Amino acid sequence: MKLRIGHGYDVHRLTEGRKLILGGVEIPHDKGLLGHSDADVLVHALMDAMLGALALGDIGHLFPDDDPTYSGADSMKLLEFVNDLIRDKGYRIGNLDATILAQAPKLAPFIPAMQERIADVCRIDREDVSVKATTEEKLGFTGEKLGIAAHCVVLLTEL
């Protein structure tokens, strides 16, 4: 069985007047993430990891931010497209491990729902989806509550 590993990273600035969406889940917060789509950093990092594992570029190539088609796009729908693309190439997610970097809000209560949403869209078992959150001890742009970032590593296996 052939295995492929990919890593993804994304970051977006926090701003007023936007919903905070992470892992396809709306999180109650006074700010949301600024971006062309819904700016779901977790899902964007996951998609980049999936695409990177198969050397298919990144989401900026697939869903350009200057294309009005993707203005306000639901990242879970984009994830479904990327998941179908990797399946068309003969692969599926074996497992993924993601970390969200955010000083606020506290994300622990929302992580199970994020894992469920991602597992459902990617058509994998919930046990194959690891999502963690951490602060950066008030250091850097995430620590200063200016933005939120996410890293994701994914293992793709042949179908």
- The assigned CATH architecture is 2-Layer Sandwich
* SS-derived structural category: alpha+beta
Largest sheet strand order: 4-1-7-5-6
How many helices does DSSP assign?
5
Mean pLDDT equals 97
Count of discrete domains = 1
Organism: Ruminococcus champanellensis (strain DSM 18848 / JCM 17042 / KCTC 15320 / 18P13)
Family: Belongs to the IspF family.
Protein name: 2-C-methyl-D-erythritol 2,4-cyclodiphosphate synthase
Binding site for 4-CDP-2-C-methyl-D-erythritol 2-phosphate: 10-12, 36-37, 58-60, 63-67, 134-137, 141
Keywords summarizing the entry:
159 residues; alpha+beta; 60s Ribosomal Protein L30, Chain: A; 5-stranded mixed beta sheet; two-stranded antiparallel ribbon; 30% helix
Task: Characterise this structure.
The protein has a single domain (3-158), classed as 2-Layer Sandwich (60s Ribosomal Protein L30, Chain: A). It is α+β, with helices and mostly antiparallel strands and 159 residues long. The protein is built from five helices and seven strands; from the N terminus they run ββββαααβαβαβ.
